[in-house]
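Example S7 (structure tokens).
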């Protein structure tokens, strides 16, 4: 079914089947393809279409030039009871991410906490799908990944810091989980590109020009660098994510991370970290549900500044979209469906 906006609505099970077949045709074993699609379909269910099955295009291009290893042999080492080290063997990022998530769960299940450090990986999708899977299994989470450099060091004039995402999740056994997923830039470059197309200025907090000075000109901004959230504090947070995801994982970090756009046929050696806490060691599911529902109610009860925009906690919009799309089908760009069908054919 399609509509006037050149989108289509596809049932979740059909989307998963198409996605899995597409990645199998790109060389992945069936179980590995299913892991990748698990993450990307959750992204589409959440409404994060830029990080969903549309990624088949960029992942597929790199698989075809062997910049990503379709037959990755992922290895997990346990140097300590609560630590897991994952070597992704240059596999598709969501595949490495799912292995790391399961390894961290395995460590936290018995030890109460577990951390997995992954290396030799690639772009692993958005963080919130992993946070959801962890929350549904009873784990609170802090998850991060490093990224290709697009941000200048605070006060610097060239790109040496990645727009590294970090996410936090806390389960609610009888309500909506808390899920926060954020990158380190004030806005995505797409917003600046849209301003350029529209011929409008941008706030001077979004980006700098090529000399590292704040600008309201979208063209100068696209030639310059993204601004981190919170100024120097966001810069520090971006470095912390890279230290955990890249440096401690023995992956690439900062300018050692290869750009998949500039060098699609070369391994990126991205790194991720998954820190999980087994909430069942802290109290019963009833105890946690009561506290989480009270936590959300305190926020919801704040009178909204705009009547049509009630106060929410992070994750509610995405979980609402997921429930609606599971019931009614997933809205997808027609171009993405065509891409899926071409690869699945």
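Recovered sequence:
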């Amino acid at each position: 079914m399609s509509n006037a906006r050149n989108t289509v609505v596809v049932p979740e099970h059909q989307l998963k089947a198409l996605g899995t077949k597409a990645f199998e045709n790109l060389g992945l074993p069936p179980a590995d393809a299913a892991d990748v699609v698990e993450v990307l379909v959750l992204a589409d269910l959440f409404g994060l279409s830029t990080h969903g099955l549309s990624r088949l295009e960029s992942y597929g291009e790199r698989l075809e030039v062997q910049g990503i290893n379709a037959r990755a042999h992922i290895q997990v080492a346990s140097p300590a009871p609560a630590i897991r080290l994952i070597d992704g063997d240059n596999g598709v990022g969501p595949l490495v991410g799912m292995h790391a998530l399961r390894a961290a769960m395995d460590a936290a299940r018995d030890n109460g906490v577990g951390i997995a450090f992954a290396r030799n990986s690639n772009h692993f999708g958005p963080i919130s799908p992993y946070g959801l899977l962890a929350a549904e299994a009873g784990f609170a989470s802090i998850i991060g990944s490093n990224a290709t450099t697009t941000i200048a060091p605070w006060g610097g004039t060239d790109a040496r810091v990645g727009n590294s995402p970090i996410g936090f999740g806390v389960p609610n056994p009888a309500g909506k989980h808390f899920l926060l997923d954020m990158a380190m830039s004030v806005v995505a470059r797409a917003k600046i590109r849209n301003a350029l197309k529209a011929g409008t200025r941008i706030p001077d907090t979004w980006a700098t020009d090529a000399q590292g000075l704040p600008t309201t000109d979208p063209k100068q901004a696209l030639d310059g660098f993204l601004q981190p959230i919170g100024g120097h504090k966001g810069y520090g947070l971006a470095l912390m994510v890279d230290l955990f995801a890249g440096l401690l994982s023995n992956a690439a970090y900062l300018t050692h991370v290869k750009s998949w756009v500039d060098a699609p046929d070369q391994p990126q050696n991205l790194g991720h970290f998954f820190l999980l806490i087994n909430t069942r060691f802290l109290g019963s599911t009833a105890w946690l549900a009561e506290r989480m529902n009270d936590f959300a109610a305190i926020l919801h009860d704040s009178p909204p500044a705009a009547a049509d925009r009630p106060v929410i906690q992070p994750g509610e919009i995405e979980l609402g979209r997921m429930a609606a799309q599971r019931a009614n089908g997933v809205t997808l760009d027609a171009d993405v469906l065509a891409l899926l069908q071409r690869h699945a054919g």
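Notes on this example. The longest helix spans residues 93-111.
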